[in-house]
Amino acid sequence: MNMTEFDYKVELAKIPDTPGVYRYFDEEGTIIYVGKAKNLKNRVSSYFAKSNQHDRKTKRLVTQIRKIEFTIVHTEFDALLLENTLIKKYQPRYNILLRDDKMYPYICITNEPFPKIITTRKVDRSLGTFFGPFANPKAMNTVLEMFKQLYTLRSCNLNLSPKNIQDGKFKVCLEYHIGNCKGPCEGLQTETDYNKEIEQAKYILKGNLNQPKQHFEELMLNAASRLAFEEAQEFKEKLLILDKFHSKSTVVNPNIRDADVFSIVSDENAAFLNFMKVINGTITQSQTLEVKKKLDETDEDILTMMVWEMREQYDSEAKEVITNIPLSIELKGVENTIPQIGDKKKLLEMSLKNVLYFRKEKADRQASEESGGDRKMRILLTLKNDLQLKSLPRHIECFDNSNIQGTNPVSAMVCFKDGLPSKKDYRHFTPKTVIGPNDFATMNEVVSRRYKRLLEEDQDLPDLIIIDGGKGQLSAAGDALKSLGLYGKIPIIGIAKRLEEIYFPEDSIPLYIDKKSESLKLIQRLRDEAHRFGITNHRDKRSKNFIVSQLESIEGIGKTTATKLLKHFNTVKNIYDAPIEELEKVLGKARALRLKEQLQAINDEVR
Questions:
Q1: Least crowded by CB within 10 Å, which of 201, 329, 357, 482?
Q2: In whole angstroms, what separates CA 462 from the centre of its chain?
Q3: Among the listed ranges 163-177, 245-259, 517-531, which one has the minimum average pLDDT value?
Q4: Cα 242 from chain centroid (whole Å)
């Protein structure tokens, strides 16, 4: 058929009502799109019927179709496999291109006598057994470093065939003499003994640490029974290395066996996915990626395609796939779970936090470019994306309680506008309804007083409220906003000091912003400024109360007289420096003399 002549009605008449894969060709005979369908006729017809309902990209695809081919398969799952293969082979222009991840490194255990453990970015399955890919090379290097501590595996590239070893072609190198290798090149270690260590390394790479732990524990007990205590100590130290490595892994729940966790969020142009591989209740690998949309693909279709792809790349054999939306196709031998409660739900939430943070970082980069070099605007745009705010946080207010040793409790509020301090808007608060040190009640009172006044005076409300404290203080501030009808109208967060965790109301899982992020530094600056401002006021108040109290302790001077002195001289220093004649005008001669004698001691104590 002439490729320039295309009658889609004639082509559609040939297509059956069965599962299969269809391929669209352009005028030059190039495959421009591959798709799968439960019903080929219905799916392909949908491209040409009601074309006015398609998006711009799909309309462009349809105008370029000059030929249709299809392949019938037994099931929709078979269609998924064939579609996957054809997209990888032809990489059509309008298809989402599946990742090959050659950019990420793998660990390979080579197929040869006395196998080596090497890293490579080129996957050739004939070379050996591959583990990965490792989206985080640092994690991969941690594993390799641990292998050096646990096992004595060779690092040379010698051909250690039985004949070469028997013929004595090689001599041990420095690695043997410093204890990193047992010298298989000279036949000093048998291949059986060597392969036992390789098998233990494979268990670790597969995420199973129990087997290596049991192996070293048996060796340790055996050595101890032979009274070889130094040897037993060596195995004990190896056990400790494994325990330390395991403790640094993200342990989810030992009751959750092997599972793959996937979450997806998307916008008009791209989908963002996170994958976490869970083995024996521990997250062993994680990767977050962006998939550019080519047509109006649904999240279900993108997720299903990527689930299959990622499981293939990571050699996953897990029988359960946990997702935030259902897969569009039922995968053979795999149960798709969308948890609503429990530990699996928490695991899915962790995955979603990763994917949302990944999307936010991308938005940060775009915001930086859009800011055109304006640093203040760039930081505010980054903060907006970090916290997923609806508007730019030009006006931010931060609250802090100061309550040193339970005395003179005060609270402080600082205000930043366009990323800079607005000191004329700073405020101090002395609790009126709270007795004694009670951070939660104090926070509730001062936040309520602040925004009740702004509402009464019809002043501008902030774009963001920051509370210096964790979930308790944040909850108290949130209750104050609820009482004023402002909850949900003004974004509010809490920052906990210990790990710089960002808490949102009614969310138990904190957000961790990159410690180097400019937005976190802005939040910290607000928090530190509120603390400084509060502490300064606390000290001033405590000092003034202390001075009045000390003045009252002088014989013949009560609270009225002490206040009168401060009002007349303004400061203790002025009282101390005043000549006796000036003091006599306020106190009279006898009391002025007694005051003068005691002021030096009081001044020393205040200092």
A1: 482
A2: 27
A3: 245-259
A4: 25
| The two structure tokens encoding residue 427 | 């405020």
Average pLDDT over residues 290-315: 87
- DSSP structure class, residue 458: T
Q: Which helix (H) or strand (E) holds 69?
A: strand 67-72
If one looks up domain 553-606 in CATH, what number appears?
1.10.150
How far is it, in rounded angstroms, from Cα 243 to Cα 258?
20
How far is it, in rounded angstroms, from Cα 32 to Cα 22? 11
Paired tokens of 129: 């057994």
CATH for the 8-90 domain, from 3.90.180.10, 3.40.50.2300, 1.10.540.10, 3.40.1440.10: 3.40.1440.10
Which pLDDT band holds residue 590 (cuts at 50, 70, 90)? confident
Poorest-pLDDT segment among 24-28, 69-73, 379-383, 552-556: 552-556
The 8-class DSSP code of residue 99 comes to: P
Note the residue count of the chain: 607
Structure tokens at 486: 């402002």
Give me the amino acid identity at 100: D
* 566, burial (CB in 10 Å: exposed 0-12, middle 13-18, buried 19+): middle
Exposed e or buried b per residue across 451-486, where buried means at least 16 C-beta atoms within 10 angstroms of its C-beta = beebeeeeeeebbbbbbbbbbebbbbbbbbbeebeb
Predicted pLDDT of residue 582: 83
* Non-local CB neighbours of 423 within 8 Å, separated by 6+ positions: none
Q: Which two tokens stand for residue 358?
A: 């990944």
Place of tokens 């524990």: 217
> What local confidence, expressed as pLDDT, does residue 260 receive?
92
CA-wise closest residue to 64 among 115, 107, 29: 29
CA distance 328 to 89: 23
